[in-house]
């Protein structure tokens, strides 16, 4: 049975007025459909519109033209059923691990023993039960991001947006959290849109990879990766899709360099 379309963008674009009053196209018209339960990665060089695109979907920004819908309804702002996780974690320093997860549940109206039990369940799900009473400053960066993931998943969102969530982490922690995120996604099955500048990360995680290009920001190509999870990081079938994405990215880089007279990524 084919999954229903969860997120749809039809000729969605974003324009800004510059300080000189000129119209700047940050994102050219985008047409994209993301199905319910998909894991889609947005990848591309700096300035290609990745963050702008995910912000349109998450409701942090409004499209200048075209439409953005989730479940057939126009996105007019943020929604508690559509959660964003950022690179900066966004934890409350005065709250413990449990307290941070509890905060999200309390904001949705869940209180008392039921809320504490559910928060504890998600703390356990990300492997932090031993640190349940610790505060953010007592945790490593990877642990803080696991708290952010637990807090997001605890409210059982139908869509999970992640904007370069592992960008500030070391390589080993990054790989560990990639596997943890995949495990949690397979268990809970929200629709996931994941922004990254790391091509290997995009190929390893995504069922589809949306490659974007700059000048103006636009979708260059969508690459399907019809491989089951878990995936081998080195060798195996994944290598074919990695080469395909790297070759396409190289073309994007060449094009951007020729148009700008030298492009820095």
List keywords for this structure.
265 residues; alpha/beta; 10 strands
Folded structure, characterized:
The protein has 265 residues and is of the alpha/beta class. It contains 7 helices and 10 strands. It has helices at residues 50-58, 97-107, 112-125, 141-154, 171-188, 199-205, 238-260, and strands at residues 5-17, 23-35, 39-43, 65-70, 73-74, 82-86, 159-163, 191-196, 208-213, 218-224. The strands form 2 sheets. Strands 6-7-8-3-9-10 form a 6-stranded mixed sheet, with helices on both faces. Helix 2 (97-107) runs parallel beside helix 4 (141-154), helix 3 (112-125) packs across helix 4 and helix 4 runs parallel beside helix 5.
Total strand segments: 10
Strand order of the largest sheet: 6-7-8-3-9-10
Shape: globular
Annotation field: number of helices:
7
Strand content: 25-35%
The helix/strand series, from N terminus to C terminus, equals EEEHEEEHHHEHEHEEH
Distance between termini?
A: 41 Å
The chain-level structural class is alpha/beta
Q: What is the residue-averaged pLDDT?
A: 89
Q: What helical percentage do the residues reach?
A: 25-40%
Low-pLDDT residue spans: none
- Describe the largest sheet: 6 strands, mixed
Determine Rg (CA atoms, Å): 19 Å
């Amino acid at each position: 049975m084919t999954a229903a379309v969860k997120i749809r963008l039809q000729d969605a674009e974003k324009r800004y007025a510059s300080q000189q009053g000129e119209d700047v196209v940050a994102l050219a018209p985008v047409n994209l459909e993301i199905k319910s339960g998909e894991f889609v990665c947005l990848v591309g060089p700096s300035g290609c519109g990745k963050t702008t695109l995910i912000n349109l979907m998450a409701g942090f920004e409004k499209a200048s033209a075209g439409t953005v819908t989730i479940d057939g309804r126009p996105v007019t702002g943020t929604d508690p059923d559509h959660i964003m996780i950022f690179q900066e974690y966004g934890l409350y320093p005065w709250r413990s691990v449990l307290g941070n997860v509890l905060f999200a549940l309390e904001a949705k109206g869940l209180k008392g023993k039921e809320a504490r039990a559910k928060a504890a369940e998600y703390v356990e799900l990300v492997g932090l039960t031993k640190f349940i009473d610790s505060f953010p400053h007592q945790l490593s960066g990877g642990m803080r991001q696991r708290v952010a993931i637990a807090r997001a998943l605890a409210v059982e969102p139908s869509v999970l947006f992640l904007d370069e969530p592992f960008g500030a982490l070391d390589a080993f922690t990054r790989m560990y959290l990639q596997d943890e995120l995949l495990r949690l996604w397979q268990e809970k099955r929200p629709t996931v849109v994941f922004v990254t500048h790391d091509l290997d990360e995009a190929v390893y995680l995504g069922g589809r990879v949306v490659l974007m290009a700059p000048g103006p920001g636009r979708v260059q190509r969508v690459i399907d990766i019809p491989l089951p999870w878990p995936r081998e990081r080195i060798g195996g079938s994944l290598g074919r899709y990695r080469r395909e994405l790297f070759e396409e990215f190289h073309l994007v880089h060449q094009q951007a360099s020729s148009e700008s007279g030298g492009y820095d990524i």
